[in-house]
Structures are given as structure tokens and as C-alpha cells.
Write a sequence for this structure.
């Protein structure tokens, strides 16, 4: 479940050198947020309830590119604000020129967590597909 | 001994001992080669390394063959341990084939201390290093810089570090390219990348990055070791890290720009992560200049950690670092694409059963090394004068429990691997598996009690992910490199203290 109650799940998957996140949700925005939560889980095992919420907004030419840019933006926010983005919420919509995600996250100060670096999102083996039960995503991150 | 190796969907043919070839088929532009003993090949065939290596051969302008080093394993797009020489005139350059951590690399600092000098002070030293060298997420950097500082670092590399008193001239003389890529251009790097970089100048990061105090455990080639200033029982320091968030962002930015600008080329490739800019295009030129700037940033990053390490040694041992002769042995990149001139034989560009290199024409190539080390032999002009007569030093870090190696560029490296060899032990086990199998505190206790290795980390999970058992046999990796003559074994080192993020 996300913080707004939408059904969404993620799991960390095996990868020889890096880490993969597989996620499912009923909506496209839900699966974006679930992958983002998986990305946070790959960096930190125990997340406290602290931190303020921040907005994030990204546009891109396609849905996969949007997921890539959204996750990249969260990594950027992590580095420049020194917070771990958790409790992600996202809404995805089609625009005249492409796609947009508008979301929020709770930024837990890095000083309060025992967290590891995760370098970047990759396109390698990326899957973003609609299934009978909703949306499915698979993303490999460079560690 | 079989002449073929069946790896499921693909069969490799033995070219000679430790050299296996996947013949050119379908859309492959050249064959692919794996340099490995049979035990290493079985491990390499256990994940998607071979599929990714074959995918690499689809890149336009690739010459001879794509090569996987003995420590190769699955990466993203391009395998880790992959080397590809791609024509700089009619080929392409691929950010994904360099990797996100541009100039992730390693340097070794010598000392005049011996293991006897250090024994009994390991805890003090590891605590002092951990307290003074930033590591992990959000730990900041040694230099609290501005964007102007970042731009100077990007353009001038170690020359900036020298001006700021973080380096001495001898450091530049013992670094690949003297620590500065002249093609670097900060103006083609995004503000986003600079923002990420300015708080991380002089920081280890985490993952497989570390700072390790080591003792020289064994010397294999006495004369070369003497030229490198190494002797048994000597204490050395090994620093492994890269260009941090700045380099990661440069790769991400150009991958996206190339995806949108060169979609036609991308559609010919089997993996989106291999997105490439055609040689001569504006984006190829901009990426090369940006990558060179990120290379400079990584060199400065490792230099600042060297500077801080010298200060820590001064406090712990109560002597000037110069008196302890803490000089840089060498600094070498693992993730890089460089314009280099290589001889490309016609025979090797023919399909199936490609022959050995030799003869042929000289071509300027973008030599992509992703998780691979340049290994130039004696005589090559790119090798610093200090080592030009003996061959370029190669530093191959192993795990916390098995030790590391110093090699020198082998005389066959130019023919076999575009002047390259392995970069480490190579991972065998995923990070999630590692955390299920190992517990960080147990790993640290075991290393200290059984092997006298003192480890201090920001995260116990990182120690579990980097436990000695998750890596391949570094001895076997180095043995293959030596047997092929691409990197000659000089010395083996063993950990004493290790800090990581």
C-alpha cells in the first residue's frame, strides 16, 4: 500500500553487480511511486518516520523515458537536498507534447539514516507494461 | 580439454589457451572474445555477461572483436570487464559502454613504513581514517567547494589540486595522463551535474568503493617491483572511487540526449543502454569533452582523499608524510573511453575464426573500457616517463579477505585487448544474495580475528554486500592475465585496514 492507500508492491530482484526493482500497482502513477520506494529500499533498510514532504515534477517524451527521468530526479534531489526520498506518491498524465509525472516524497535527512549510495537509474532490461491487474515495472539501478 | 564451451544459447570456440570466441553471426559486426580459464568461463556464463558482450558487437565501427576480461560479469548494457575498440572516424561513442561512474578507478600510494611499524596501531589508524575521509551517502566532501571550484576541477584536474596545495608535482607525474584530460570542457556539463558534484569533492561514496591500508605480501618480479618502489612487508594505501554524482549525472544526461537525437542508430541496437552518438556528430564531440571533464573530477576526488590520508598518517605516526615517503605509485581508470591509436588487422575483422592481430592499419579508436584497466606495455608514449621503460603499473583490487595485485602492462596487451586487462576480482553473487548469506558484523569480526584485517564501514549492509565470498578468485583472474601476457604479475598485497561507505 502507498501512503494514500493505493495497492502497490515492490520487490528487490537479483542482479550480479547492481540491484533491480520489480513493482506492480493498479495505476501508472502508483507503479512509478512503487519503483521509487523500491529504490529507497535498495539504499536503506530501516527508514524513520521523519522528514518533510517535497514536490517533484518531470516531463518526458514517452512513458519509459518519464520513469527514467523521474527516478533520476529523485536521485538528484537526494544528493542536493541530502535527503532520502521515501513515501513516494505520483500521478502520471499524458500531455500535448508527451507525458508528465507530478509527485511528492518524504525527504528523510541522510544524517538520520544508515544508507548506501545508489548511482543511477538505467534502461537496461527496463520494462513498463500494462497488465490485466494494472501496471508492472522492472528497473535496474547502477550501484 | 574441449575446443568448445557450451553456454546455453551460445557456443564459444577455443582460439588458444584462455581465449574463447563467439563467432560473428546475425547482426553482430565482429566476433566476441572472452579471456578466461574454464573455471572463470563457467562463472562468466552464469549470468547475462555473454549476451551483453554479443550486444556490444552491434555498435557501428567496432573493430576486431569485443572482449571480456577474466573478471567479467553482467552489468547494464555493456558487461563489466568489457572492452571495445570503436573507430573514432566512422564508428560511435557510447556513454553506457563507459558506465555511469566515469573514471571510477584506483590509485596506490607507497609508504616507507613496514608492517611491523603498523602492527598494534590498526584500530587507531582505521578509526582515524574513517573519521577523516568522507564516505557513504550525504557525508560531504573534503573540499567544501563552489560551482566555480567545480568548473576549475573539471577543466584542470590535478593541476587545480596542485594550485590548491592538495597535490605535489610528483603526484601529477605518476597519474594516468598526468591527471588532466586537455579535451575537458565544463561548459557542456549540466548545472544538475555540477550541483551534485560540488558537495562531494573528496569522498569515497559506497558500494564497492573503499580505502585500504595494505602490506605487500609477495613479490613476483623483483626488478619491476623495485622500479615501482615496492618490497615485501611494505605498507601501501589503495584508494578506489570515482566521479561520484557528477559523473553519474553526465552519463545520464548524455544517454537521454543521444536517445532523443540519434533514435535511428538506437533502433539498430539490441539494448537501449548502449545508446551511442555517431563519431563526428555534435553529441559525440560534446560527450567526449564532458566525459574528459568528469575524468578530471574523479582524479581530483582521489587526490583529495590521498591528501587527507597523508594528514591522517602524519597524526597517527607523528611524522611528516614526506618522511614516510607517501608517494603516488600510480592512478589508473576503470571506466573510460579514450581516443587511442591501435593497429587493427584485416584478419580479425573477418567473421568466424578471426585470426590474431598483427600487421594491418593504424586507426584512431574510442577504446571503451568498462570495468577494465588500461595495460600498456613498455615503450608506449602514453605511459608516464617514470614507467615508460618498464611498462604501465596496473592495480587490481581484490576482496577484503583475499588481497590485491600490482601488475605491469604486458607485451601482448596491444594485440589481444587494445592494451587492457582486468580491473578486479569480479562479482559472483548479487547484493541481495550476499545480505542473505552474510551479516556485516560477523564479516568484520571474522576478518579481524582470523586475518588481522580491521574494517570500519558506514553501513553493515555494505560490508555484507562486499564480503570476500561474493567475489571470484582474484588469484585466478590475475593468473590468466599473466599467462596471456596482457598484464604481468609484480606483487600481491593483503589488507590491514579497510574503510568503506
Amino acid at each position: 500500500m502507498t501512503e494514500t492507500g493505493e495497492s502497490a508492491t515492490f520487490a528487490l530482484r537479483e542482479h550480479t553487480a547492481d540491484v533491480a526493482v520489480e513493482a506492480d500497482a493498479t495505476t501508472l502513477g502508483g507503479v512509478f511511486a512503487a519503483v521509487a520506494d523500491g529504490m529507497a529500499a535498495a539504499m536503506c533498510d530501516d527508514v524513520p518516520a521523519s522528514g518533510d514532504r517535497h514536490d517533484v515534477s518531470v516531463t518526458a517524451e514517452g512513458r519509459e523515458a518519464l520513469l527514467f527521468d523521474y527516478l533520476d530526479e529523485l536521485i538528484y534531489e537526494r544528493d542536493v537536498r541530502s535527503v532520502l526520498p521515501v513515501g513516494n506518491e505520483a500521478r502520471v498524465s499524458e500531455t500535448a507534447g508527451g507525458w508528465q509525472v507530478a509527485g511528492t516524497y518524504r525527504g528523510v535527512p541522510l544524517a538520520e539514516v544508515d544508507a548506501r549510495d545508489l548511482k543511477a537509474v538505467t534502461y537496461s532490461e527496463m520494462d513498463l507494461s500494462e497488465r490485466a491487474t494494472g501496471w508492472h515495472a522492472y528497473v535496474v539501478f547502477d550501484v | 580439454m574441449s575446443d568448445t564451451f557450451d553456454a546455453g544459447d551460445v557456443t564459444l570456440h577455443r582460439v588458444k589457451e584462455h581465449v574463447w570466441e563467439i563467432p560473428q553471426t546475425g547482426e553482430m559486426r565482429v566476433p566476441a572474445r572472452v579471456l578466461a580459464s574454464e573455471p572463470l568461463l563457467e562463472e562468466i556464463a552464469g549470468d547475462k555477461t555473454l549476451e551483453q558482450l554479443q550486444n556490444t558487437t552491434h555498435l557501428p565501427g567496432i573493430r576486431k572483436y569485443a572482449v571480456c576480461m577474466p573478471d567479467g560479469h553482467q552489468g547494464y548494457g555493456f558487461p563489466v570487464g568489457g572492452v571495445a575498440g570503436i573507430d573514432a572516424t566512422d564508428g560511435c561513442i557510447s556513454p553506457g559502454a563507459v558506465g555511469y561512474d566515469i573514471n571510477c578507478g584506483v590509485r596506490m600510494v607507497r609508504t616507507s613504513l613496514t608492517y611491523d611499524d603498523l602492527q598494534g596501531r590498526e584500530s587507531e589508524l582505521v578509526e582515524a581514517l574513517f573519521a577523516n575521509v568522507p564516505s557513504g551517502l550525504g557525508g560531504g566532501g573534503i573540499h567544501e567547494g563552489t560551482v566555480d571550484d567545480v568548473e576549475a576541477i573539471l577543466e584542470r584536474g590535478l593541476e587545480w589540486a596542485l594550485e590548491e596545495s592538495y597535490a605535489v608535482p610528483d603526484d601529477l607525474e605518476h597519474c594516468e595522463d598526468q591527471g588532466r584530460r586537455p579535451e575537458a570542457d565544463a561548459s557542456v556539463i549540466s548545472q544538475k551535474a555540477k550541483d551534485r558534484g560540488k558537495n562531494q569533492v573528496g569522498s569515497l561514496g559506497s558500494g564497492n568503493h573503499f580505502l585500504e591500508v595494505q602490506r605487500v605480501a609477495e613479490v613476483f618480479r623483483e626488478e619491476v617491483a623495485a622500479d615501482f618502489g615496492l618490497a615485501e612487508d611494505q605498507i601501501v594505501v589503495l584508494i578506489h572511487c570515482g566521479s561520484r554524482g557528477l559523473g553519474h549525472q553526465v552519463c545520464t544526461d548524455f544517454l537521454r540526449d543521444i536517445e532523443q537525437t540519434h533514435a535511428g542508430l538506437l533502433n539498430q541496437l539490441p539494448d537501449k543502454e548502449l545508446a551511442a552518438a555517431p563519431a563526428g556528430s555534435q553529441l559525440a564531440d560534446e560527450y567526449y569533452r564532458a566525459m574528459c571533464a568528469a575524468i578530471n573530477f574523479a582524479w581530483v576526488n582521489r587526490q583529495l582523499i590521498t591528501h587527507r590520508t597523508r594528514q591522517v598518517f602524519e597524526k597517527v605516526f607523528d611524522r611528516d608524510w614526506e618522511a614516510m615517503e607517501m608517494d603516488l605509485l600510480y592512478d589508473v581508470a576503470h571506466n573510460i573511453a579514450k581516443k587511442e591509436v591501435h593497429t587493427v588487422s584485416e584478419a580479425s575483422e573477418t567473421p568466424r575464426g578471426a585470426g590474431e592481430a598483427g600487421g594491418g592499419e593504424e586507426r584512431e579508436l574510442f577504446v571503451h573500457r568498462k570495468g577494465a584497466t588500461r595495460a600498456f606495455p613498455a615503450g608506449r608514449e602514453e605511459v608516464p616517463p617514470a614507467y615508460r621503460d618498464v611498462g604501465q603499473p596496473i592495480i587490481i583490487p581484490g576482496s577484503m579477505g583475499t588481497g590485491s595485485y600490482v601488475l605491469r602492462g604486458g607485451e601482448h596487451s596491444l594485440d589481444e585487448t587494445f592494451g587492457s586487462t582486468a580491473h578486479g576480482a569480479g562479482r559472483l553473487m548479487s547484493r541481495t544474495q550476499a545480505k542473505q548469506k552474510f551479516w556485516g558484523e560477523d564479516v568484520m569480526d571474522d576478518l579481524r580475528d582470523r586475518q588481522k584485517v580491521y574494517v570500519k564501514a558506514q553501513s553493515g549492509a555494505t560490508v555484507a554486500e562486499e564480503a570476500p565470498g561474493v567475489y571470484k578468485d582474484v588469484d585466478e583472474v590475475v593468473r590468466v592475465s599473466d599467462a596471456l601476457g596482457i598484464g604481468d604479475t609484480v606483487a600481491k598485497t593483503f589488507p590491514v585496514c579497510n574503510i568503506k561507505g
